[in-house]
Write a structure and sequence with these properties.
The complex is a heterodimer.
Chain A: H1 2-11, H2 14-35, E1 42-47, E2 50-56, E3 60-67, E4 70-77, E5 80-85, H3 92-95, E6 105-108, E7 113-118
Antiparallel strand pairs in A: 1-2, 1-7, 3-4, 4-5, 6-7
Chain B: H1 10-31, H2 44-54, H3 57-75, H4 81-100, H5 110-133, H6 143-167
Helix pairs in contact in B: 1-2, 1-3, 2-3, 2-6, 3-4, 4-5, 5-6
């Protein structure tokens, strides 16, 4: 048993530990850089590729949107947003759950409604809620 | 009329045998369901590593490229995006193996080589995906998942190759 462990430790040489360390560092850095999206600030509701409305995410409300198939309801809950009811048959948009980071989107194809979270980079002053 | 004769050497036989094993492993992997879409262990690369260590790098390149072409023809994905993904991954990892194959064997074992090659494979595929298949920066969101899988399978493949080399020592 001890002999086996010694053999396996001889298999991994010092340089390997260095490469493994670099690899772990790469994993941590890539996850940090690529997954750290800024928190969103505004919610854009698109209907049929046109911006229907823009709301601030810092509130707790429900919004009803009329699409070609019926009424879709969207819940804004201080910083995050989700579809809560929709007339579409498969309810994929509802199952997407909450989104909260900038550039996240949920699309409901049957009712032609999509919601986009945008960060604070673009200026919103005229159509802002 | 000239008669051209192709002499088949022992080396060709070795390449054919190893390629056949690599293709088989690729096919087995193709029919095996993966828990995360797109994440595959790449067990055919065990054969490529084995070939490079037991024989030489040129033979490894032959086996790797034959594997890519033959597998795609069998699965019917020849010249499709899947084929180019696999080709680009193979080319990048071969390139990295060519560059790093002379790492000092006192300090580096084939685990390092396997890890470098699997990372190069991921980057080769991501370059094709970003430039051609999904030209959107959103795909980089997936990169950490693939780097973690490259790490795990890079180590596992290296350990299996090591065992194979122990069982069939270099003549």
């Amino acid at each position: 048993m001890i002999k086996k462990i010694l053999q396996s430790s001889r298999l991994i040489k010092p340089g390997d530990w260095f490469i493994i360390f670099l690899f772990c560092l790469l994993i941590v850095i890539s996850a940090k850089v690529l997954w750290d999206l800024p928190q969103g600030q505004y919610l854009e509701i698109h209907k049929n590729n046109e911006i229907l409305a823009t709301y601030s995410l810092n509130q707790k409300t429900k919004k009803q949107i009329h699409g070609p198939k019926g009424v879709t309801e969207v819940i804004i809950n201080s910083g995050k947003v989700r579809f809560s009811s929709s007339p579409c048959p498969k309810k994929y948009c509802i199952h997407q759950g909450w989104i909260q980071k900038a550039n996240q989107t949920i699309v409901c194809i049957p009712n032609q409604i999509s919601i986009y979270i945008v960060g604070g980079k673009r200026a919103y002053d005229t159509i802002n809620y | 009329m000239t008669l051209s004769t192709i002499s088949i050497t022992d080396r060709d036989h070795q390449i054919a045998k190893l390629s056949a094993i690599a293709v088989t492993l690729s096919l087995v992997e193709f029919f095996f369901p993966s828990p995360i879409p797109g994440v595959k262990p790449g067990i055919a690369n065990i054969i490529i590593l084995y070939t490079i260590f037991k024989f030489d790098i040129r033979m490894g390149i032959w086996v790797s490229l034959i594997r890519v072409f033959v597998t795609s023809i069998i699965l019917g994905s020849f010249l499709s995006p899947t084929f180019f993904l696999s080709l680009s991954g193979a080319l990048f990892s071969l390139l990295s193996l060519v560059i790093f194959r002379n790492l000092n064997s006192r300090y580096f074992s084939l685990i390092s080589l396997s890890l470098i090659a699997s990372l190069a494979h991921i980057f080769g595929q991501f370059i094709i995906v970003r430039l051609w298949i999904i030209p959107h920066n959103g795909i980089f969101y997936l990169l950490p998942v693939f780097i973690v899988s490259a790490f795990i399978f890079g180590v596992v493949n290296a350990l299996v190759t090591n065992k194979l080399l122990q069982l069939n020592p270099k003549k």
